[in-house]
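Anyone have tokens for GPI inositol-deacylase? Sequence:
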Amino acid sequence: MERSKTQATSSGRSFLSRTLARHESSGHSVEHGKGPLGLNTLYDPAKSAIVDLVLVHGLGGGSRSTWTKSDSPSQYWPKEWLPQDLDFQDVRIHSFGYNSNWGSESILNIHDFAKALLASMSDCPRIPRNTNDPLVLVGHSMGGLVIKRAYIMARQKEEYQTLAARVKAILFLATPHRGADLAQLLTKVLNVSPGARPFVKDLHRNSLATQAINEEFPQYSQDLRLYSFYETLPMTYGFGKSLVVEKDMAVLGYPNEQSTYLNANHRDVCKFTDQTDPNYQIVRNALASIIDKLRTNVIPGRDEFNNDQRRQLDSYLGVSDAFEDDIMDIHNIRLPGSCEWLIAKNEFIEWRDSANTQLYWISAKPGTGKTVLSGKVVHHLKDLDRHIAFFFFDYRNKLQTTISSFLLSIAAQMAHTHTDVLQAVLDVCEMDDRLCEADYRTIWRKLFTGAILRTKFAQPQYWVLDALDECKSGSDLLPLLSKVIEMRCNIRILLTSRDHFESHAQKLYPKVGVISEEILEDDTKSDIALYLEANMDKLPSIDEDDKENIVDKILGKSAGCFLWVSLILQELKQAHTSAEIRQVLEDVPSDMNDLYSRILSSMSRAPHYGKVLAKAILTWAVCCSRPLTTDELYQALQIDIKDRIDDIKMSIESRCGQFVYVDAQSRVQMVHQTARDFLLSSSDFSDFGVDERVGHRRLLTTCMEYLNGTEMRGSRHRKPSTGRIIREQGPFVDYACNSSFEHIVHVSSHDEEVLLILAKFLSSSNVLSWIEYIAQQSDLHRLMQAGKNLKQFLQRRPKHLAPIGKDFILLDCWATDLIRLVTKFGKNLKASPSSINHLIPPFCPPETAARRLFAASARGITVTGLSGTTWDDCLSTIVDPEEQYTALTCSDKSFAIGTSSGKILVYNEMTCQQTQVLEHPEPVKLLQFGRRLDILISSGARNIRLWNTVSWEQVWKLNTSQQCMSLSLLEEDQLLLGALKNNNLAVWDLAEGTLRDTADWTQDIEALQSHVFRRPIAAAFCMESGLLAVVYRGQDILLWDLNRDALHDSYSKTGSSSLNPSKNMTAGVTAGVVFSVTPNATLLVAGYSDGDLVLFDTLEGIVKEKTPADAQTLACSPDGRTLASGDSSGTIQLFEFETLRLLYRIKSDEYCIRELTFSGDNHRLLDIRGSECRVWDPLVLVRQDGEEGSSDSISVSTAPQEVLMESSENVVLITSMISDLKGKVFFCGKEDGSVYLFDTKSGRQTQKLFSHARGVSIISLFFDSESNTLSSIDNASRVKSHRLKHGEEIGEAVDILIDYRAGAAVNQVLTNRGATHILVCTAQSDILWSISSNDESTVIETILWEERGPSRWATHPLNQEWLILVSDGVAHLYEWQTLRRITRPEGILLEDSVLPELAIRSITPCFRNTAIAIMSSESLRPQSKFKLRLWNASDLTINSKVAAPMPNYHALADHVKTLIGDDGRRLVFLRSDNWICSVDPESGKGDMYTRHFFLPADWLSTNVKLMAEVTHGGDIIFVKRNEVAVIRRGLDNIEEEKGDKPGKRPSLLGSHMGRGRC
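Reply: yep, here.
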């Protein structure tokens, strides 16, 4: 079988193209004929128009026919296409008609037609007179002359001055500005017909009419924007075939004119087939460009509009306007008149003005001025008001060598130019505010394919890329540029490189239009001559003859190399006589390396003093990761050479000025990359050569010496704040902090001194100041990169030395810690950089360096109770024993789980907390979030549902004939493509909720007859390559070409069936298939029944790799780099997609993995199995970009990481908790029915107290500390009360006081002080028991309720004999002894507008028993939103009728996520941003609460209710699944936010006796 040769469908158009065509098309009817005379308004926008566009036809044309192809109404583009175009929505469009029929007699000429046009525009009621709205005129053929004459008349006549001033631009389509030879021939033919036709004679070459127009028009048109388009195809007529208007006749040649060609004949330059017609695109884009520029001028302040948003965007993207400084530096270097040879080239003009060529590749040898040439192109395009973005790759600055930096810079520049791009990019960044730290694949996917490249640009966009060869991963960038062009985004790219285009051609999309050009010696000779002429005056005095001779000799030896000429001029400046000048010119070599050798020899012969400094300057200039400023280098050198320096700039110029210079921004730069390369290669034969490893070691040790010094010494006991680091720091701090660890990858791994220096720094508190500086002044990606580089350094050591010793262990710990600090605490670090000093270390695992070194303070925060000693890769586990999880998907903000019962559970992607529950009334098979729109797609066996993820309402229900195996969204999420189990493709229109089309991929294909009666088991789409992969049991994989409606190929396990006819039938695909999603993706992975994972290249039809995996399910990361597989035993493996190299394995003996998916940022992996969903956060997903890789000489360990996952069967979750007031112990109930005693000091359980029935969960506990009575409730409605052993230490349960089954769900249990009475509450009844230890507990009173909302009881804080009941916004008081209501029947109205609408959750006495805090929520679900209100306890009395909440604490209402409790001094709560805070009665205002510390985000990543308590000793007790964390002295820490004015701290208060949140 031949690949891609199968016959397509009979329609001649593919299923996909038919669908997309129908999506874009719309039909309108228009009247027939050439069109009416006069000015006809075709479109008048509903909103105010800002521009009037007038079209004027030519000889023999009409107001409609001239602009309509094939007389089809739908092709009348000014009326049918432009009004639907977003860029013309505010443009009023008119067409002017006049009788130019040369077949009939006429007395009119061009002047007459111009008068009629002028009068029509002036009198048209649709064109307001009292406005300055611009006019844009378009003329075809003679219509252009009519427009020119009309404009001249308007400028000359007083009554038309206002109208003339409004004309801003004119477009000429094949206009015979100087006449046309064909007009003379036409006149001869028409002479045989009676009657005159003056307007035809006006078209003769150099007629009086055209001469007069051409003499006057230049006087008035200097301020107009002029566009001239000329024809290139001949036209056939009755008496011949030729161009009607030659190029020289159609182009004005004015400075303010832009001209380009159209690939059409004279008649068709203004008629177009459809909106994709290249000619239409050229004309349309020119119009849109003009209008966009005019729109900017019309709308006041548009250039200043959104400046705040632009600044915010720059912050998101981590870019600055430094690129403008770079282009100005280059501009200042370039001499006037230079580089004009490129601008004049026909190839350049074609690239600039034609839509047919999108890529201009300029190659040249080093030192030939490519960067200056790129700068010239940038300024040239800016002078033409073209929209341009540029990037100059620069080996001297690491930030300017990566694809990520290029993409971020281009995105920022385009957003600064286009408001719609600005908004689109902001939308992306607001969803991912750390996008600038992501790898380039993620940036490309989110910013470009997801936003920027989907924008319709009104005019061509230009990208200028200089020095592609200095991009670290230039070959990886080319497919991205190819994708830009392939997507037809109206973006034209010019790049320069040392490499020729041919060496990279295979990386580009085959249909890319490319101009490849090499800069030759003859091209730059004139520029070098200009340069020499400008610098001759700086040489010793010589006469004109000598000057000319010098220029000729230098030009002859330069070989087109500017750098060589520059260095020669520097040598000549040292000559003092003509003889010396001649000697220099004779001796100097023309080869650059020979010239560099000569310079080094000269430096070696110089006096000894200054050589140490010169060597140091060269080393820093060669090895620095970015150019240092003179101030930075001054401080660095003094640390390095241990000596004072007088004038750094003078030292550079005098000692090594031919290799290094200081630019306009005071940055110390290498003169060229060739100079750097030479110095790195010359260490063996010159004292000034630089050994790369030695050089980087020198810079690293200098940076470490600074970081270990006093400037970085901070106080660890400084209170946290968001302010700046207080200590005075020198200019070198930025380089030392940001770049020190970049040098470590180049240092020898067996260098013991480096190991000791690093260990000294990482064991001192200075490391915290370094982290604080990075968090405050830079970006956290620096910390992650430092960790990666440190890990590489250590992984290389085993090749030389055994990895033992405490220093090695310390560095190894920090290598992991630096990455984990960002992934676990990144947002906290950015918000509060100083939190690294004492808030973050206690929450790190015990065996981490951060915890061991910096969390041991006797006065600081401590965390005990957790068993984990190292970082945990499992971030969260979501369990619901009542459900079977069947589907999974993830977006940037949320992830969703589908269940067999039809529920869709939606969770916050960051916190893993449930946010929504949706109902899809059948088992959910597939889920998918929208890429562009806020939508979620859910699919079952019989229907698909579309959900709005803002309102979470169902938008559409779409019926399906068969179950979907795979889904893909198209056309910016407007269309949904599905592969069904009946071998059909289906497309739904999501805007209308309708089925648009279906197609059978097996129809009419003989080779597939064996499949027709089989049902496929899996499918996968790859929209990047337009392929569908379909899996049949026991058969080859079928690859279907969506663009051709044809079989692309079929794959056996050995590869393409067309290339390998013999089939391997021993193993079928069982794990399905998955495509890589990288640009120009050609990779496909399939899992086979014999356990093999096979990687195919669909372009070559070959097997690239195989590896054993036993995969049952597969998933690809959004960046296309990582493949995840899950097997039947529950083991997960991560592979590098391109090589199938194993990266990571999670071993398990649990359930089979049902589905896997990655988070939007590629850093997390989610799996579902049985009733569980786990969220993984492995370090291996924080992978190093290829572009950030280190030297090729560096070898690192590639052994996969392996994690053993604890079986969930061994984990018994804690389901309830209560603490003893004394704070020494607390109690926990578990899901297996047991109740345990825990020690507060260690956080560990000490003994089992008692159990309910096996398998039931303890849902609530209440403890009375006076009687040591512990009451418990289970989820089987059983209530038990136990008397615990008395003594100094609470012991085992000695008496069962009550054991009662309520028969209905028990909501609450509480006892009075001393536990003589117990109240058991259900939704229908409240029962009061009298309890005793002799098994004689009796019921005292029962209250039955027919109907009531959520309610809660509590002991009155001011009277221990009373009970408070709160329900439906009303409070009642009851007697504890009898349960008799003692308030009036109406109760006490709690005045609060929101309380009656909410479900009450708890009542907590607080503020020395003077107040009660009532916590309510929207529902009783664990993750509902909470409201907190405080009431004065004295307002709740027997005689009270109304009680109002305490007004000082209203501000707390929306800030409290969970109320933790009262510690006897203050009310403690968890704020919505995960900070533990408190408020006391003496602070005066509720919004004056105090922040203490934050909880790690992964602590809150759970689907169970949050359980936390505070003891009267100030300890916070927090439940984490099956363990409890005890946070001691956390409330002693106070962090003041900006504007805080803490009140006087209250004194320690007495304790309550009853304990439990009621």
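The chain has a mean pLDDT of 83.
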